[in-house]
Amino acid sequence: MKALMYHNYGSSDVLTLKEIPVPTPRENEVLIKIRATSINSSDWELLRGKPLFARIWGLLKPKYHILGSDIAGQVVSIGKDVSKFRPGDAVFADIFDQWGGFAEYVCVHEDQLLPKPEHMTFEEVSAIPQAGVVALQALRYNGEITPGQQVLINGAGGGAGTFAIQIAKSLGTEVTGVDSARKLDLMKSIGADHVIDYAKEDFTKNKQQYDLIFDVVGRRSIFDFKRIVKPKGAYVMAGGSMRRLLQILFYGPLISKTTSKKMGLLMHKQNKEDINHMLSLYDARKVVPVIDRSYPLSQGITAFQYFGEGLVLGKIIITPES
Question: Strand, helix or coil at 115?
């Protein structure tokens, strides 16, 4: 089978498309023929080995050589103890703990898999698991948000950001999206009430305060955000530089204890319940995955290069040709 692989940390130029053996499922695993895999920020971080915490699975060299956690495909064969799935079943999953999605086949434990809804494409369902759940959990960081509250999403034009806009709007909030000029029209089209081009306006100095701030970017100081969080409001960061991560880990608990503002880091919890909640929002037409481009696996290096430029509108999907 073909697989997009890397053996050293770096940018898209360390990726190579290789021919490797098709894996054999263990007793509780199924072999999946992959039909679609989406790129997440976690893939980019593990590829580069930055921030430093991305090297948790290998300080000097990566432990896993095939990235890709959000997969969708069809069951080809099953291990002898598998009882939940049969060959031909359409499935999807977040395999964040093992990776391996940017390939033609992957083996996955049956407990990680969910049936693919018949009315969704493989591309759509592969876009949801990680980015959708990160957005959902971030918006729940300070408890359930309520109608009329004001929500700001920094980095709103990417994968988690586009989901967050739609979820927040479905709950009746007033949403402000911050991103580059290229993404403003997209953010408006999926429901953002206000959009800000970060290159033209410093949104931390416009005297507007918010009940919840979801920071997907993680480049600004926590103190910039502290002044625009309302009393009893919250700021949650889902990714960023090592400097900003350390800053929020140190000052976040201190600010939360000494003020009425809750500020901290999102610890993404991979689980089927939140994925199913995202599917229910899709069924209610409250959330639709925003897919910028799909690339064949043979152009996976180009796909990662585009992702690294920060221009992606929503999600990028990689699909094996065969």
Answer: strand
Task: Please measure the distance between the N-terminal and C-terminal CA atoms of the chain and give it in whole angstroms.
Answer: 10
**Neighbour-count burial of 28, counting CB atoms closer than 10 A to its CB (0-12 exposed, 13-18 middle, 19+ buried):** middle
Structural domains in the chain, CATH included, are 2-127+290-319 (3.90.180.10), 130-265 (3.40.50.720)
Bond into 296 cis (ω within 30)? no
Averaged over successive runs of 10 residues, the pLDDT of the chain (322 residues) comes to: 97 97 97 98 95 87 96 98 97 95 98 97 98 97 95 98 98 98 98 97 93 95 95 93 88 94 92 96 97 98 96 97 73
Per the CB < 8 A criterion, the answer to whether 145 and 56 are in contact is: no
Of 166, 132, 129, the residue nearest 36 (C-alpha):
129
CA distance 137 to 122: 24
Q: Name the β-bridge partners of 4.
A: 17
Q: How far apart are CA 179 and CA 217, in angstroms?
A: 9
Is residue 236 within 8 Å of 211, Cβ to Cβ?
no
> What burial class does residue 200 get, using C-beta atoms within 10 Å of its C-beta: 0-12 exposed, 13-18 middle, 19+ buried?
exposed
- CB under 8 Å to 309, separation ≥6 — which residues? none
